[in-house]
Amino acid sequence: MATLVVLASCTVGGSGAHHNAPSAPGSTNGYAVPIPHVTPGGASSLQAAIAKLCIAPPATHGKPATGTLPPDLVSIAKAVEQARGHTYTHYPPATEVSNSQMDRRLLKNFRQTTSRLADDRRTVAWRTIGVIGPGDDLYRAYRAFTTGQVVGYYDPETGDLVYLGSGSLDFSERFTLAHELTHALDDQTFDLTRLDPLTAHCQDERAQAALGLVEGSAQYFAAVAVAQNPSIDLSDLLKAIADAASSGNPPAGVPQFVFDQQLWPYSTGETFVASLVGSGGTTAVDHAFEHFPVSTEQVIDPATYPADKPVPVSIPDLTGSLGPQWGDLDAMTVGEEWLRGMLALRDGVSSDAATGWSGGGYRAFTDGHDVVVVLRTRWDAQDRAATFASALQEWSAGRTPAPAISSSGDEVTAVFGTSASAIATASKALGQQG
């Protein structure tokens, strides 16, 4: 959702269930989501394929919100100002809604800003890699997560704060409102609509990194605001919030991989902001808003921010070798967070094998029947590349057809596919083209 910054309900407990093995692609003919039609031929590079396939959400041009902030929320807003170190230009108007009204608002926005075609393309690519199951559907998963988890949101385009009303405010509701009011203050100070071009141009890794800062700020400073109560210990509160945001089982219809990606900006982002505050106070957080992190690696490891920039990854057009009906299906940049989430799906495979990431992306091709996905990553050193390649081999053990995984210097390439012959053809072409 390009125009909304939302808070997911984190009142879930227990540890997330992991798959025993990554999902095999299965028969493309058995997909509930059919393989979308593609134009034969491919773009010249990975970035060109991303630009070619990108479907930007339409501008909604929402009307500026009007109204006032209720008195019981004004006290929370003042606590947020004190915690964040900035002052509102004006208090954001707040709209109290019921559960059904919230779902209707979010569903309307989801339909306006989400492309079914883009999600279908990605569904087929992610199924082929194995990070979601053969029956999973990303469009339905994102819709289920959005309408089933959101308890409040702030809309930077209109300046409106919308929240579920329930009469008197308990601790959880006060935290939620402090979170959204932090978004409003950060927006008035730094303009959160600056994230929209990242989404509009399908810069997935950079958008996820920036979202880690935005949600992390809201998590951290909401905790500071509510911890002004002398009976609350801030360090214990931050730990409880981070644990809640990174645990639990996904709602029905939401794959574990998708669930983890959706909650990552809240949990890891809060840790990132806490680190910035610890090293440079709120001034360091302000600097990060002026200069967004550009990779999820920078959010995961604050020591890499801001100097450690991603290295571009090259994936050539393979359609000439695959056949005359083959074309580009999907393409995206892939960061450390995405790879960690992938490795975590299989018990016994350490997600730490994604440490030392330097750049990455994948490119998917199809002829309407078979699918090939080339995942290529760069690493800080050759030994880090070897570690990831070994983990990926272990992660893929037992899959049919088996992916082709190779390592050369600081680069690791994996070819996933729906048939052994397609994998072999793509691998041979990569060996010829680099």
Give an overview of the whole structure:
Strands 5-6-7-9-8 form a five-stranded antiparallel sheet, with helices on both faces. Strands 1-3-4-2 form a four-stranded mixed sheet. It is built from 15 helices and nine strands. Helix content is 47%, strand content 13%. It has 434 residues and is α+β, with helices and mostly antiparallel strands. The longest helix is centred in the middle third of the chain and has 35 residues, at 256-290. The chain has two domains: 5-21 and 59-304, no CATH class; 319-433, PknH-like extracellular domain (Protein Transport Mog1p, Chain A, 3-Layer(aba) Sandwich), CATH 3.40.1000.70. A hairpin with a 2-residue loop joins strand 8 and strand 9. It is globular, with a radius of gyration of 22 Å.
Task: Tell me briefly what this model is.
The protein is of the alpha+beta class.
Write the layout of secondary structure elements.
Blueprint: E1 5-8, H1 46-53, H2 71-84, E2 94-97, H3 99-113, H4 116-129, H5 138-149, E3 150-155, E4 160-164, H6 171-190, H7 196-200, H8 204-226, H9 234-245, H10 256-290, H11 296-300, H12 319-322, E5 327-333, H13 336-343, E6 357-366, E7 371-379, H14 382-396, E8 404-408, E9 411-417, H15 420-433
Parallel strand pairs: 2-4
Antiparallel strand pairs: 1-3, 3-4, 5-6, 6-7, 7-9, 8-9
Helix pairs in contact: 2-6, 2-8, 3-5, 6-8, 8-9, 8-10, 9-10, 10-13
